[in-house]
Amino acid sequence: MKIKMTFLIFLFPFLCFSSNSNDSIRENTFDFNGEKITEILKIYFLDDKNFNNNKQLFQTIGNTFPINSHVIHIKKIKDKTIFEAKYTIGDYGLRVFPKNSSAKKDKNHLIIAGDSMVFGEGCQDNETITAHLSKNLPDYEVLNLGHRGGGPHNTLALFENYPIEKLINQKKGIFMYDFFTQYMFERVIGSKNYVAWDRGQSPYYDLNNNGELERYGNFNDRFFTSLIYKFINSWPWLNKLLPILPRINEHHINIITKVFVKMKKAYLSKFPDGKFFVIINNSSVFNPENSIQILKNNLIKSGIEIIELPFIPLLNETYNFKDGHFNGRGQKLQADAISHHILLN
Fold first, then answer.
1. Domain range holding 297?
2. From CA 93, how far away is CA 343, in angstroms rounded?
């Protein structure tokens, strides 16, 4: 049951890009453990001139909500609402949140990147990790680079292709990537399960013949591998027979390491006075322990500082919605742990 519930967290709807410039309502219904799960996304465009920009953003960094939009996100199990939240989306499909009005004018920046946990799936704008960080750390201007259903590869593509430095005024500050160890290994390499979740639309990075990281389009451009994965996913019995493809190995961990190395370089090129950290987040039901240790060793050898947060079970109803995403309390707990680290250092 725990494994199935954890899987539900990451079976997100791919409804983030509209095929036209009109407001839209999207609904996705599927069965989970004998129950009907329904997700509804109501997307309201604040600026209908962004169609081409949205399309380019989608092709460059993967699934995003439209630029300058409001989104109502509702998730239900049968007729019981798990959450109903409103998202404010700004430049580059990034989540916007209320800023701390008492924050100091002369301050540093704090950029935190990650997936739906950083984005704040199911949480109101003022409940996200970045909203809490802004309250906890008035000396910092905070920017949310959370990418629903994403991973470090999406964030790297954002840094490589868009001038995000224009969104934040302070050249000095901190960047943190919140890496969830349970499933982000699979996301970066485009596993069979991730192709099902992402539809092969995220950036595809791999090592070239010289062992250097290079982008090869999106996962769908890895034609035969993605085609095979999609075929397996289309047959329940075959998918059950082959639940995990491929098995994580050192080559994959080297890809992840070099994604972070390149991300650090891209960040420092925009913010030369900044500090770069990777958060190793072990809040999960199952972890590939050996892979985590190898990754940690690789990051340290590559000159990347790591932070490990306290364990928070993803199925704890005090801190999570029933789909496993952090609720407002879980977001605050994470923000408090990060704030504590920053203030101590």
1. 98-344
2. 30
